[in-house]
Amino acid sequence: MAENSFEPKITAFVCNWCTYTGADLAGTSRLKQQTNARLIRLPCTGRIDPVFIMKAFQNGADGVLVSGCHPGDCHYNAGNFHARRRWAMFKEMMDFLGIDNKRLHFSWVSASEGKKWVDVIDGVINTVREQGPFTQYKDINKETEIPVK
Amino acid sequence: MAELKEIAKELLTSGTVAYIIGYASEKNDKTVPFIARTVEDAEKLVFTHHSVNNLSVYLKRIKKPESGKVGLVVKGCDLKAVVALIQESQSKREDIYIISPKCNTVVSDNTKPWNKDNIASKCLSCEVRTPSLFDATFGEIETVELPSDEQIELIKKVEAMSTSEKWEFWKNEFEKCVKCYACRQACPLCYCDQCIVDKASPRWIDSSATVQGNFAWNMIRAFHLSGRCIGCEECNRVCPVDIPLSLLNRKMSMFAVSEYDYKAGTSIEEPTLVGTYKLTDNEDFIK
Amino acid sequence: MKDYIITAENIQLLVNDVLKQGWDVVSESKTGVNFNAIKDASELAIKSDSKPSKLSMKDFFFPKTEPLFFYRQSHDGVELVDASPIEKKTLFLGAKPCDAAAIPVLSKVFNWDYKDEFYNKRVENSVVVSLKCNYSDDYCFCTSIGLSQKAEQGSDAMLTEQQDGSYFLHIVTEKGDEFFKMYSQYLKDTQAENNKPVESKYPEPAVKFDQGKVKGWLDANFEHDFWNNLGDVCLGCGQCTFVCPTCHCFDIVDENCNYHEGGRMKNWDSCQLCLFTKHASGHNPRDGQTKRYRQRIQHKFKYYEDKFNEVLCTGCGRCTRGCGVGIDIGGIMERIDKF
Question: CA nearest C214: which of C101, C98, C312, C327?
């Protein structure tokens, strides 16, 4: 695929209470955004297991965004505080293992931040598009894929 | 060593402990884990430079006795795993009788004699040769001349690599993995009743030893130990294909120290790293 | 069969020639961890006095993971796609006799009722040239199970290191004969009496037991107290079975699968893992490490012999050398022998 025609696939893991609602607001406000992201709604960022992120890469995602409520806004009080520590460590580990941090993004987007959501997701999509397809990870998937004749 | 035998005999005779998990001599200098249940067994207990194994792994692998405590011969470094297990509510302090020797470093290769070039890498940065938590202790600290710490150099080397070089480095290492799960079984902190890799519905991690399945497994294993790993390096030692697993663990432990000032297995009272949070935790990386 | 002399330089030339013909050449890796397909003769590590590599070479006949077939939904039902055919010819060079001896043992189980086409194809496509072993340590016991450091079972030809640094090449099978005829320019004819092997620095394996006697004891003592504490310290990893040249249990799983497509994989499995015998009901007939360890011993030294008249072990000692808690299979055999 030629570099300029590449459209990245982004998986966005978002929390039900803030970011999902924020993204919804962006839609109902008719704010224009790029459509490369698939949103997966979870109850809380505290529920977003890093294994989900890994699975997203495994299933062909070129980039991942994880997003939830601002600190202090968590519907369950502290889910995002716990998540914050976990992400920091996961990000550090991914970097050490050779997975570019430009493919892994984190944000706080509240239910009222429709505009911020658009900025964040457009930013993520643009950054990942610049990186090109995540061929490294796609290559290691080949062993279990149907051989191309 | 005579002290250890005396302590063990006394404990077994008085019924304070139901059994003692310790080390016994095997061929040559090698020692192997051994469970002493009787006074005669206690005679076989040893503690030498070859007492490499982290015996705290057995706390979660062997059935708890109906009465009496579990006696555990445990070095200062491995003691951190006991502390971590207590922190994580997996063991109770009052259920364990800790016999922690003063340790003068252990070998890297259990079949060769102990000398300057045969010292386990975990010993090179050890701060706990004299244990701080115990019910009984024995031995004397001697001065040991230590070689340089190559592992930390390797961590720095990998850190300095480009993203694609890092990927290649780990890909070459993980490619060798045969999914025997020795790393998991030897780890005192891998105690889940059902490991995520054994869950078939949904199957998060491929059970095949393909590069993809190996990457997923090793990544998640290391992540589940991030901030929990106490650095006994048993995973590294038991790996049949020599994947430098503790490199990854140590890197994450260093991060836990620099980022959260947290050292796993230091205090029974302290909450675990991922079990707590601070309002002031860094979030520079979050948009 | 015929005997030749081949110099160390000529081995290098021969290997490069074989590689040029499009064959794979597999030899022990220089790190001593596993066997590798090499790209150039300079990567060869032929050492008769080295410790056996940590992994055996069974991976090349019975891979740790291999696709059986793939499936996908098509317009008119389900389409099955074959796994890529096994076409590569492979030369195994410098395998230890205890490694090569595993091949005929494995062949029995893979041809017992269903003939495993993947395994058979790989064996058919391979030429195994083993190297007389000049190594032994506390964990070797090939001599106790009817093999030796120069056993020819499973080899197509055998090299013996000579005092002058060259190698004596003894052809064992037709297949070996045909193979070396293609490369006769590197060989020099000789007779058996010219075989002047270097002396081994190591004594014969020290572990000694009588397999017949052990078998007899195993037949009668399934419930013996001896087993009770044996599995005490076993941590239940699969290391011993995975490094073993003869352990052959596998699991079949669908991988990378979704509603539309997927692949069916055959992966190594181990009787030492807790899920191995677990039933869907939750019941596990081998519910502790003690029972699992007994199974390993019984399968190797009794069941396999009952069924195939062959011991499921070549005495290479890998399982013991690699065991994190020092469980010594040779030592256990010696103890049983003394009952």
Answer: C312
Q: Strands C157-161, C126-131: parallel, antiparallel or unpaired by DSSP?
A: parallel
Residue A1 has pLDDT above 50, yes or no: no
Q: Average pLDDT for residues B224-251, to the nearest whole number? A: 94
**10 Å Cβ neighbour count for B64?**
13
Contact C70, C83 (CB under 8 A): yes
Q: CB neighbours of C200 closer than 8 A, spacing ≥ 6?
A: C49, C134, C135, C136, C149
pLDDT digit string, tens, across residues C274-291: 999 999 898 999 988 999
The predicted model gives C314-339 an average pLDDT of 93
Within a 10 A sphere around the Cβ of A73, how many other Cβ atoms? 15
What HEC string does chain C produce? Answer: CCEEEECHHHHHHHHHHHHHCCCEEEEECCCCCCEEEECCHHHCCCCCCCCCCCCCHHHHCCCCEEEEEEEEEECCEEEEEECCCCCCCEEEEEECHHHHCHHHHHHHHHCCCCCCHHHHHHHHCEEEEEECCCCCCCCCCHHHHCCCCCCCCCCCEEEEEECCCCEEEEECCHHHHHHHHCCHHHCEEECHHHCCECCCCCCCCCCCCCHHHHHHHHHHCCCCHHHCCCCCCCCCCCHHHHHCCCCCCEEEEEECCCCCEEEEEEEECCCCCCCCCCCCCCCCCCCCHHHHHHHHHHHHHHHHHHHHCCCCCCCCCHHHHHCCCCCCHHHHHHHHHHC
Burial of C39 (0-12, 13-18, 19+ CB in 10 A): exposed
Residue of B nearest to A59 (CA): B212
Residue of C332, C323, C277, C276 lying closest to C300 (CA atoms): C332
Considering only CB atoms, B222 lies closest to which of A82, A93, A144, namely A93
ipTM for the assembly: 0.90
CB–CB of A32/A117 below 8 Å? no
Report the pLDDT value the prediction gives residue B2, as an integer from 0 to 100: 85
Alpha-carbon distance C193 to C222, whole Å? 49
Predicted local confidence at residue A149, as pLDDT: 57
Alpha helices in B55-181 (DSSP H): 76-87, 150-160, 163-175
Amino acid at B121: S
Question: pLDDT per residue over C188-199, tens digit each?
Answer: 999 888 888 998
pLDDT of residue B8: 94
Separation CA B215–CA B217 (nearest Å)? 5
**C256 with A141: Cβ contact below 8 A:** yes
> pTM above the 0.90 mark?
yes
pLDDT, mean of residues C150-157: 94
Q: Is C63 in CB contact (< 8 Å) with chain A? A: no
Please list the residues that pair with C222 across neighbouring strands: none
CB–CB of B209 and C255 under 8 A?
Answer: no
Nearest-Å Rg of the Cα atoms of chain B is: 20
Dihedrals phi, psi of C331, to nearest 5 degrees: -60, -40
Mean pLDDT of A101-114: 94
Residue C266 and residue C252 in contact, taking contact as beta carbons nearer than 8 Å: yes
Measured in whole angstroms, the distance separating CA B66 from the mean position of its chain's CA atoms is 26
- Cα(C14)–Cα(C7) distance, rounded to whole angstroms? 10
Average of pLDDT values for C135-152? 92
| Interface residue of A96, A99, A101, A136 to substitute, partner B, most B CBs within 10 Å | A96
